[in-house]
Every structure is written in structure tokens, then in C-alpha cells.
Design a protein that fits this description.
The complex is a heterodimer.
Chain A: H1 3-36, H2 39-47, H3 49-82, H4 88-94, H5 97-100, H6 103-114, H7 119-126, H8 135-160, H9 163-171, H10 176-205, H11 208-213, H12 224-233, H13 237-261
Helix pairs in contact in A: 1-13, 2-13, 3-8, 3-10, 3-12, 6-8, 8-10, 9-10, 10-13, 12-13
Chain B: E1 3-12, E2 15-25, E3 30-34, H1 41-49, E4 56-61, E5 64-65, E6 76-79, H2 91-101, H3 106-119, H4 135-147, E7 153-157, H5 165-182, E8 185-190, H6 193-199, E9 202-207, E10 210-215, H7 217-222, H8 227-232, E11 237-244, E12 247-250, E13 253-256, E14 265-270, E15 275-278, E16 286-295, E17 299-305, E18 311-317, H9 318-324, E19 331-336, E20 338-342, E21 357-358
Helix pairs in contact in B: 2-3, 2-4
Classes of the chains: A mainly alpha, B alpha+beta.
């Protein structure tokens, strides 16, 4: 075996090892803990009214936040890529802010705008649309922390999209609206799906901003992550583990689905399972298994 | 269907991409818009398609003014330089795209797509995606997609610009055959004069947003209307001199210029194959040194330098070249057998119809 091959092997092992240590081991530990208690206990934990309500609320609000960010994120990405306007660079920089600031701070910011001390908060409350300690607050917090995902996944694909394809659709008689749906959206679909799925799984796990904005009211504003925290605080790690495992399962399935959906047409295997592939289409050596998600 | 543009002008900011251009593409014609890159020819095509809005001027398709029609309403087929195929659709669905938009029935569009796949030699490739095709195949899909909804006219932007030389040659011949079969009025843009010559029935030469000349390939080649056309189409030796006693003096060369006033500066052009070169220094009157020999495959090009420092090109067929036994650096004699006095910048046509003619007098042996 030549030294080149040895180096190659070492690099691959290091990459696989890194993923194993950082992601797989903690996952396995959690799963093991859950499995040790048995399936009955797992199902019982999930069926507890407070846990079930928290899980359902989390999935529901995450889905709503995802839908909203899919639409407005797409529009924002289009505007940021296609139109020149004063201050575009500033807006573009602002998009990443939710990534950069602690989610607790995000929660404080939202509470400051929609809280009873602000004009907007008072006005909304009078109109019967209280945001704080209410479900809209959860959605707002999720929207804030996940906002960059759709925009940042779409921007590069939109920039790479040939305007020619849209013009070709025009010359074939397609209206701008039809062109958007039949050409633009399908062309950027992998980027859009990535943004949407990342938004969803990130929203599922959000904790810091939600606990400030929506509080911890069981059966009303208590989301899964807050429930898990509460169970740990009250010395009930088993229930915390069960709910965590379910959230993990949902996230993992969502990411697996994403992997399948964003496959290029004509590709035979999902990239996830191509462990032995050594060269991709561009001829680059892709030694690292692409299963890391 | 006929295309006509009148006084077409397009300004971008402070620059003028197309300036007051008028021409006609006749029914069933295959016309080439030829010009260097940046000459505004693609803009003309996009204006006709409705992808750009003209600053001034009118566009007629089939005798109807279409300025106020959107690109969707103009019923044109457009082939983009880089194919612009829909990457997420199969070849079949790409070609069927326009038919779906125009609400053709399933059966009709299925039949039309199969017909086009046959016509474009794409049979069996209907299920492929664009990234699984070769450059030539992609280009044929692009043409098939444009032709599918039976457009009134076909507009092509550098249709062979993005494929390699060999495929380009095949595609040219194929396009000529296709045009003969379908007889759809077609306008294509190219910067390649050879391509324009070979493919088009008629050529329009563009430079800097202006129409320089319109005519058959032979007309444009033999009778360039402007200095630009003379330089751009084919290869031409161009020399400059001052008129003295109705002769243009260029060093030791003299070209008759009857009717021109003394002291006028004129440019004289002659094609390389009108420059005869012999290794015998007494064969022709003019003397020069052979600087380079280029092998062109079908012929040879000789580069000679006159004692006045003029560098001239000559073209010679193989038989002739073999008879002569040239060596680089040797002294040669030469003569110019045909020449043209070129129209000056800003002058439409120089001197009535007086054009290329055999040279008599001092330059012939």
C-alpha cells in the first residue's frame, strides 16, 4: 500500500471518526437510555397528557413557522438576489443576525416589542391577539431564529439560475406567474427544500427564545424542549429522554426525507448510502461518506 | 412569415446598443446577422422577440406591428446561446413545454414531440435529462423546443457558439437541411463570418449597433460596402495612399484611381488570392522578401514584406505552391491582379457600382 493510499485511508477514518464521536455517540447514548427502560415506558411517557400536548404543540407551531418562512424567505431571497436597492448590503448582513445572537436575547427582543410595555403589544392585546405567553409568541420566536435558513439556502441557487431559462419559458408563451411555478421554483427546489426542512427541524428544537416569549404554561405554551427541561429539573430524566428521542426521530426522518427529495434526477442511489463511492461527477475525490447530516 | 424592422433603436443608459436599424427578413428566408461581439446583433434579436423594449422604431411580424405585444404573444421561437434547457425536465417535457402552455391536447402534443424527436435525430433520447446529453444534442433539443408550437419565425442567438468545432460543422449542415425542409422564416446571430457565409441565404453585417451592409454572402464578400465589412469578412490586405495624377501611391505600388482628386487619401484593399507571388524575381515587377509560410490545410498563406515595410498576405493553392519551392527569407516578386478602392468611413458606397476590377498597367507582369 503506497503512502498516498495510507494517507487517504487515514483522512477517511478521521472524518468518519469525527462524525461518530460528535454526533453518533451522544445519539446512541440517548437511544440506549431510552431503550433500557423498554418500549412500554417510552410509549407511556409520550402518552402522558402534558407530554403529548407539548409534542403536538411543537410540531404544529413548527409547521406553521416553516410555512411562513418558506413563503417570505423565498420572496426575500428573490428580492436580495434580483433587485438593486439602497441598503441591500445592510439587509443582506442583517439576515444572519439570528444565527449570531443568543436565542435568549432574541426572546428578550421579541418580548420588548410585543410585551405590554410597548405600543404594539398593548394594541395587539386589546385586539384580542396577545403574543406573549401565547401561541403566536412561539411562532414568532421560531420565525426569528429560523429566518436565515430559507434565505441562505436559496440565495446561491437563485444566483446560479440562468435568467435564460425563464426567458425561454416566456418565448414559449408562459406568463411570468406560470414561469415562476414551472421553471423558477422547480429549478431552485433542492435549495428550497433544504431551507424548509432545516427550518422545521430547527424550530422543533428551539428553546431559549420560546421560554422567554411564551413561558412554560403546561397544555398551552409549553413546547417539547421546555417540557424536557422541566422534567429534568423535577428529577424525571426518563420522561425527558422519551420526549427527546421522539423529537430526534422526527428530525432524523425529516432529514432523511430531505436527502431523498433533493437527489438529482437520474441518480441511482440516495447519496446517503453511497459509502463506497470514490468519485463524483465532477471528478473530485469524495472520500468522506456523505451520510453526515 | 416576414419580419421587418424600421428605425429600430435601443439605448442602455447613455450607450446606444442599436442605432436606427432597418431591414427585412423575407418569408422562408434564413438570414444571418453577422458582427463582432458587442455590435448589437443579439440586442436586435431580443428586440424582435420582445425580450427587450425598443427605445424607438417599429417591428413587424407578418405585416403586423408587434411593438405592443408581449414576448408571449409574438409567437416566436427563440434559441438561446447556451441552450437554456429546463434542467429539471426530460427532453420530452422540454419540447412539450410550449405545447402544454398553449393547451394542446395530450395526443397532439405527444405526436408533435415524437415528430420533432425524429426530425432532430433525437429518437430514443426523450427520457433523458439535459445534463445527460452532449452539446450538439442539447442544441438540437433547444431548436426542437423552439419549433414545437409552430412559431411564425425562428430566432437563434449564436446557435452553434457553445459546441466544439467538429460538431459545429455538422450542426451547420444539419440546420441548412432543416431549414430547407421546414422553410420557417429564420434569423440567426453569429460572430463567425464563415458560419454566416455557409449557412445564410443572406447576411446582414453589423458594427457598433449600425447596419453596415445587407446582401448575399457573395455580394458581401466581393463587394464590401464599407471598410468595416471589407476588414471583417474574409481576409483582405488593406493599404493606404495619397492620390497623385489619378493613381493611389503606396510606396512603390500604384493603383489607378480615375476620378479621384489629387491629394485625397484612399484605402485600397485586395484579397490574398489576388496577390500573386513568384520565386523568380523577374517574373513580376514588384520586389519583396518572403517572411513566413503558413500551411492552412487546403492552401498556403505567404507573408511578404516590401522594401517600404508593407506586410502583405498571399494565398496560394497546393499545386502552385509545390511548383515554386519557396524558402523563408528569400527574395520574391509579386503583383496585385485585382483590387478595390475602399469606401471611406461614413461613406455609404464609394463610387457608384465601380468595384473590383482587374488591374492593368504597371503592376502586371
Amino acid at each position: 500500500m503506497s503512502s498516498h493510499l495510507l494517507l487517504n485511508l487515514a483522512l477517511r477514518s478521521a472524518a468518519v471518526g469525527y462524525v461518530l464521536v460528535l454526533i453518533f455517540l451522544p445519539l446512541a447514548a440517548l437511544a440506549q437510555q431510552s431503550a433500557a427502560a423498554g418500549l412500554d415506558r417510552f410509549l407511556q411517557d409520550l402518552a402522558a397528557p402534558q407530554a403529548a400536548a407539548a409534542l403536538w404543540l411543537t410540531v404544529e407551531t413548527a409547521a406553521i413557522a416553516t410555512a411562513i418562512n418558506a413563503v417570505f424567505g423565498t420572496l426575500s431571497a428573490l428580492v436580495l438576489v434580483r433587485y438593486e436597492f439602497p441598503g441591500r448590503w445592510l439587509l443582506n448582513a442583517l439576515v444572519d443576525l439570528p444565527f449570531a445572537i443568543p436565542t435568549l436575547v432574541a426572546g428578550l427582543m421579541i418580548a420588548a416589542i410585543y410585551g405590554p410595555t410597548s405600543l404594539l403589544g398593548t394594541w395587539l392585546q386589546q385586539g384580542g391577539m396577545a403574543v406573549l405567553y401565547n401561541q403566536p409568541g412561539i411562532i414568532l420566536a421560531m420565525l426569528f431564529v429560523t429566518m436565515p435558513f430559507t434565505i441562505r439556502s436559496l440565495q446561491p441557487v437563485l444566483m446560479g439560475l440562468d435568467r435564460d431559462q425563464e426567458e425561454a419559458a416566456f418565448t414559449l408563451g408562459a406568463s411570468p406567474w406560470m414561469t415562476f411555478w414551472k421553471v423558477t421554483v422547480p429549478s431552485v427546489l433542492p435549495g428550497l427544500l433544504t431551507g424548509v426542512f432545516l427550518t422545521f427541524v430547527r424550530a422543533l428544537g428551539e428553546f431559549g427564545s420560546i421560554v422567554i416569549v411564551a413561558g412554560n404554561i403546561p397544555m398551552k405554551t409549553q413546547v417539547a424542549s421546555v417540557y424536557v427541561y422541566g422534567e429534568i429539573e423535577s428529577y424525571n430524566p426518563q420522561a425527558a429522554t422519551s420526549v427527546s428521542v421522539l423529537i430526534l426521530l422526527i428530525s432524523f426522518l425529516a432529514l432523511l426525507l430531505l436527502e431523498r427529495l433533493t437527489r438529482r434526477p437520474g441518480e441511482r442511489l440516495p447519496r446517503l448510502f453511497q459509502w463506497t463511492r470514490s468519485r463524483d461527477e465532477s471528478g473530485n475525490d469524495s472520500a468522506v461518506p456523505t451520510a453526515a447530516i | 412569415m416576414k419580419i421587418e424592422v424600421r428605425g429600430l433603436t435601443k439605448k442602455f443608459g447613455s450607450g446606444t446598443a442599436v442605432g436606427d436599424v432597418s431591414f427585412v427578413v423575407h418569408e422562408g428566408e434564413l438570414l444571418g446577422l453577422l458582427g463582432p461581439s458587442g455590435s448589437g446583433k443579439t440586442t436586435v434579436l431580443r428586440l424582435i422577440a420582445g425580450l427587450e423594449v425598443p427605445t424607438a422604431g417599429d417591428i413587424f411580424i407578418d405585416g403586423k406591428r408587434v411593438n405592443d405585444l408581449t414576448v408571449q404573444e409574438r409567437n416566436i421561437g427563440f434559441v438561446f446561446q447556451h441552450y437554456a434547457l429546463f434542467k429539471h425536465l426530460t427532453v420530452f417535457d422540454n419540447i412539450a413545454f410550449g405545447l402544454k402552455i398553449k393547451k394542446w391536447s395530450r395526443r397532439d402534443s405527444e405526436q408533435r414531440v415524437q415528430e420533432l424527436l425524429g426530425l432532430m435525430s433525437l429518437v430514443g433520447l426523450g427520457g433523458r435529462y439535459p445534463h445527460q446529453l452532449s452539446g450538439g444534442q442539447r442544441q438540437r433539443v433547444a431548436i426542437a423546443r423552439a419549433l414545437a408550437p409552430r412559431p411564425a419565425v425562428l430566432l437563434m442567438d449564436e446557435p452553434f457558439g457553445a459546441v466544439d468545432a467538429k460538431v459545429r460543422q455538422e450542426l451547420r449542415e444539419w440546420l441548412i437541411r432543416l431549414h430547407t425542409d421546414l422553410n420557417v422564416t429564420s434569423l440567426f446571430v453569429t460572430h463567425d463570418q464563415e458560419e454566416a457565409m455557409e449557412v445564410s441565404g443572406r447576411i446582414i453585417v453589423f458594427s457598433k449597433g449600425k447596419l453596415e451592409q445587407a446582401g448575399s454572402p457573395a455580394d458581401v464578400y466581393e463587394e464590401p460596402a464599407t471598410e468595416f465589412v471589407a476588414r471583417f469578412i474574409g481576409s483582405m490586405n488593406i493599404v493606404e495612399g495619397v492620390v497623385q495624377r489619378e493613381q493611389v501611391q503606396v510606396g512603390s505600388l500604384e493603383f489607378p484611381a480615375p476620378g479621384f482628386a489629387d491629394g485625397q487619401k484612399l484605402q485600397v484593399g485586395f484579397r490574398p488570392y489576388y496577390l500573386k507571388v513568384a520565386e523568380d524575381p523577374t517574373r513580376y515587377r514588384q520586389q519583396a522578401k518572403l517572411r513566413h509560410i503558413y500551411f492552412l490545410g487546403v492552401a498556403y498563406r505567404l507573408e511578404i514584406e516590401t522594401p517600404d515595410g508593407l506586410i502583405l498576405r498571399s494565398r496560394m493553392n497546393k499545386e502552385e505552391f509545390r511548383r515554386c519551392r519557396f524558402t523563408v527569407g528569400q527574395a520574391v516578386s509579386f503583383a496585385v491582379t485585382h483590387f478595390r478602392i475602399l469606401p471611406q468611413e461614413g461613406m455609404a458606397s464609394p463610387h457608384g457600382t465601380e468595384t473590383s476590377r482587374p488591374l492593368t498597367g504597371p503592376l502586371t507582369p
